[in-house]
Structures are given as structure tokens and as C-alpha cells.
Design a protein that fits this description.
Radius of gyration: 21 Å
Oligomer: single chain
Number of helices: 13
Bound molecules: flavin mononucleotide
CATH topology: TIM Barrel
CATH class: Alpha Beta
Number of domains: 1
Largest sheet: 8 strands, parallel, barrel
Helix content: 25-40%
CATH superfamily: Aldolase class I
């Protein structure tokens, strides 16, 4: 058994107990049995069958394709992706051969032995409908609509920040496909819970959150120029995890359909955190770069070790942060009723650090 990320001692302790609750990691997601909760995020590894197969063989249970668009599109000029150490900034710009020019890829994917989530995008409701209808005929296991990409002038994003527009595009797509529909949302929505609810009302079967955050910008101070050719780009990786956790928390509160939690997940503890916010499955994108393609089996193992050490299952911890928050609120209410506490500065555990800057 490979031990990773310092769980050895708790894992050994847990194994002293006779029977561990976590057991198998299989999950039933929209009627499909997945071998574990790990999902490949759209866009980070393309649409080549061999690569997607490798991802599956490396421990990923559900493989998402790079978003497919209505017409051929080159995407933005380089540089398009920059590793910032604590995450990435990218403005790839939704490059796509266009849904009609992928016959070779579809042929290769026909006899696959892994669950496939086909991501699509469009610039209008009609384009979304057109691509979705065609892709549905290729029989992926799920279709994910990307209504949340921040790196294109005219695609997708507009839907994801507006309840009515989200409702419209989801209901239109739902009518023309016969596989379950996942809707991928943006953290840029002012109230992501309301957008998710509109999608659920329009027939979405699941929500995926989040797409990249921002957009952000980095400037090369020597050349005095934005580094990305497109100037701005979406943020991903560890630096956006708190945003993803907050979004999943808000969505879980607002809807009853399952949520794929995604954004900055790279360890088993990250997975535990986003599941506690309400995620049913855990997506991984940028961490493929930092931890390699084995990241899926590593995170799954770390998650299982954590569950074993705490003798619980994924179901036990799903949305757990909501229940705890409710208890906290109730306790606070009772305390407030008993006495007028006024304002208290609480010790949050955070300390102001000495940054070394002395005047
Ligand atoms: C280089 C790159 C390309 C991406 N392309 C897509 C895409 O085509 N469609 C999509 O829905 N999301 C795309 N994303 C967003 C990811 O799927 C994911 O939502 C985001 O990166 C947050 O997850 P992470 O922090 O695990 O990377 C892309 C992200 C990156 C870094």
C-alpha cells in the first residue's frame, strides 16, 4: 500500500478497528455506477482517446472532454497558460475543431470502456441546442454545458451570470438530448445558488462548479506588458479552492440535484473539504500538472484513508458543514437570547505574521 501525504499514523490506527465504514469508494451518479468520486475537469487534457483512457486507467472515474464548440476556432495566441506556483492563469480561448469535425475522435470513443462526460459550448441558445443535439447522438454518458468560460469574448459566460438566460439555455438543451445534463457554473455569478436553482428548474440533472475564477491579469514588470496575449485569464488551482468551496456550499443549499465540486482540489483533504460543502463528486484539473496523471488515484486513496481514519463514508460527510453551521447558529441564538453579548472580538486562530518589512 502506497502511503502519501502523511496519513500513515491515522491510517494504521483506523485499521486496528475491525470493520471500516468507508469500504468501497463506488458512487451512483445519475444512475451510473462510478468506481470512485474522481472526475477529470474539462479542458486540461483535450479529447484524444488514448489520453482520456490513460486518465481513466490512472484512477479517474468520470472523464470530461475539452469543451466542443459550434464552429472551428483557433483559440488565443500564446502565451495562453502560465503556472503561478499557487495555481495557474489561462486564456486558451476555447479552441475547437467544431462539433462537425470530430468524426475520428468520436469513432475512437465509440467502444470506450470508461464513463464519458462531453462538454460543449455555444454563443447563443440556438448554437448550444445545435451542438448538444449532435453530441447526444454520439452517446456520451453525460453532456456538460459550459455556460461559464471567462476567456472568450462571445461565448458562454453571459448565460452563467443571469438566471433567466441560464434557465433558457438549459431548458433548450434538455429538450434535444437524451443523456443526463450537467451544467457548469461560474464563480462570477453574483448569486451562484440562484443560478443553480434556475438550472435545476429548467431540467438540469447536476451542477458542476466551478469554472476558472477571475478573470485575473499578470504583468511583466520589465516589459510593462500583460503576460497573456489575451491580457486577462481565468484562475485555477489551489488559490481558488476557498472560492470553489463557498460556491459548492451555496449551491448545495439551493438545489437538490448533485454537485460536482471542482476548483483547486489537489489532495484528499481538499476532497473532504469540498464534499463537506456539498459535493457528490470531486473534479480535478490543474493538479494534473502539479501531481501528475496519477493525481486521481492519489487523491482517491488519501480521501479513503481520511474516511477510514474517521470511520465514516462519503455519504456521512456530504454537506456536513451545513449541519455543523446550523448547530452553531442555534447555539449562538440561544446564547444571544440569554444575554446581550454586544460585539466580541473572537480569537479566530489567525495570527498577523511578521512580514519582515521594517521601516
Ligand atoms: C488550461 C485550461 C483549460 C480549460 N478549458 C476548459 C474548457 O474547455 N471547458 C471548461 O468547461 N472548463 C475549462 N477549464 C476549467 C477547468 O475545467 C476547471 O473548471 C478549472 O480549472 C478549476 O479547476 P482546477 O482548479 O482543478 O483546475 C480549463 C482550465 C484550464 C486550466
Amino acid at each position: 500500500m502506497v502511503m502519501v501525504y502523511g496519513f500513515e499514523h491515522i491510517y494504521k490506527q483506523a485499521h486496528k478497528k475491525k470493520k471500516l465504514k468507508a469500504g468501497k469508494m463506488t458512487i451512483n451518479f445519475l444512475g451510473k455506477t462510478l468506481k470512485n468520486p474522481m472526475v477529470l475537469a474539462s479542458g486540461v487534457l483535450g479529447n484524444n482517446r488514448d489520453i482520456l483512457q490513460r486518465v481513466y486507467d490512472s484512477g479517474c472515474a468520470l472523464v470530461t472532454m475539452k469543451s466542443i464548440g459550434p464552429f472551428p476556432r483557433d483559440g488565443h495566441n500564446n502565451p495562453t497558460v502560465i503556472d503561478l506556483g499557487h495555481g495557474m492563469i489561462n486564456a486558451v480561448g476555447l479552441p475547437t475543431p467544431g462539433y462537425r469535425n470530430m468524426e475520428e475522435e468520436w469513432k475512437e470513443l465509440e467502444n470506450r470502456n470508461f464513463p464519458l462526460n462531453a462538454s460543449i459550448y455555444g454563443g447563443s441558445v440556438e448554437e448550444f441546442e445545435m451542438v448538444a443535439k449532435f453530441v447526444s447522438l454520439k452517446k456520451p454518458d453525460f453532456i456538460e454545458i459550459n455556460i461559464s468560460c471567462p476567456n472568450s469574448d462571445q461565448h458562454g459566460m453571459i448565460f452563467g451570470v443571469d438566471e433567466k438566460a441560464s434557465f433558457k439555455v438549459v431548458s433548450a438543451v434538455k429538450k434535444v438530448i437524451d443523456v443526463p445534463l450537467i451544467v457548469k457554473l461560474t464563480p462570477q455569478a453574483l448569486n451562484i445558488g440562484k443560478i443553480a436553482k434556475a438550472c435545476e428548474n429548467a431540467g438540469a440533472d447536476a451542477i458542476c462548479a466551478i469554472n476558472t475564477a477571475g478573470p485575473g491579469m499578470i504583468i511583466d514588470i520589465e516589459s510593462k506588458m500583460p503576460v497573456l496575449a489575451f491580457k486577462t485569464g481565468g484562475l485555477s488551482g489551489p488559490m481558488i479552492k476557498p472560492v470553489a468551496v463557498r460556491c459548492v456550499y451555496d449551491i448545495f443549499k439551493a438545489v437538490s440535484i448533485p454537485v460536482i465540486g471542482l476548483g483547486g482540489i489537489s489532495t484528499g483533504k481538499d476532497a473532504v473539504e469540498i464534499i463537506m460543502a456539498g459535493a457528490s463528486l470531486v473534479g480535478i484539473g490543474s493538479a494534473v500538472k502539479s501531481r501528475g496523471i496519477e493525481v486521481f488515484s492519489k487523491v482517491n486513496l488519501e480521501l479513503k484513508q481520511w474516511l477510514d481514519a474517521h470511520d465514516c463514508t462519503i455519504d456521512d460527510i456530504k454537506g456536513a458543514a451545513h449541519k455543523k453551521q446550523e448547530t452553531r447558529n442555534k447555539k449562538q441564538e440561544t446564547r444571544n437570547k440569554k444575554q446581550d453579548t454586544g460585539y466580541r472580538i473572537q480569537d479566530t486562530g489567525y495570527r498577523i505574521q511578521d512580514t519582515g518589512n521594517k521601516k
